[in-house]
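Lecture notes, continued. The same structure-token format from the folding unit now serves as the input rather than the output. Read the line below as a description of shape only.
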């Protein structure tokens, strides 16, 4: 799918921002925010009937709880992080609803990729805003590239 490919390309831009020597966290976050909305739109295009309707509410409530737990440590980035939460939950709920509606193995890859991406970002957020771990970078990189690979494979379905 064009939108999956575009989301992957935008993710590369985010990767570059986060790899630069000085802190480009906001630029990277905005890049990934755009990538998540792009992935979410690709999955939305496959949804014929938006049910179960309670699923986005469940994602939103879960995301709000995590956001509120991180909020005291986020500081001046609270709006950027809040918008990013919305974008990744939009993507994950659309991937899940697409799988529920279609029950397609490639749609399942998109959904599993979405959950792994959330896991990656959760570890990254805890590491950045709460407490750092020597292993967090390894966990983030493994889960991030696994999720991206699953998204790339799901493009076979999304096209």
């Amino acid at each position: 799918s064009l939108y999956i490919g575009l989301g992957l390309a935008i993710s590369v831009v985010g990767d570059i921002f986060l790899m630069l020597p000085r802190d480009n966290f906001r630029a990277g976050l905005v890049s990934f925010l755009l990538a998540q909305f792009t992935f979410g739109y690709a999955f939305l295009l496959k949804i014929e009937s938006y049910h179960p309707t309670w699923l986005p509410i469940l994602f939103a409530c879960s995301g709000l709880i995590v956001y509120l737990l991180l909020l005291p440590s986020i500081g001046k980035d609270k709006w950027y992080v809040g918008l990013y939460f919305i974008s990744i939950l939009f993507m994950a709920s659309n991937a899940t609803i697409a799988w529920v509606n279609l029950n397609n193995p490639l749609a399942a890859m998109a959904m599993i990729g979405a959950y792994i991406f959330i896991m990656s970002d959760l570890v990254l957020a805890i590491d950045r805003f709460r407490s750092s771990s020597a292993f967090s970078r390894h966990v983030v990189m493994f889960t991030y590239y696994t999720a991206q690979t699953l998204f790339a494979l799901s493009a076979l379905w999304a096209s």
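Point for the exam: Helices lie at 2-19, 25-44, 54-74, 78-102, 105-129, 136-158.
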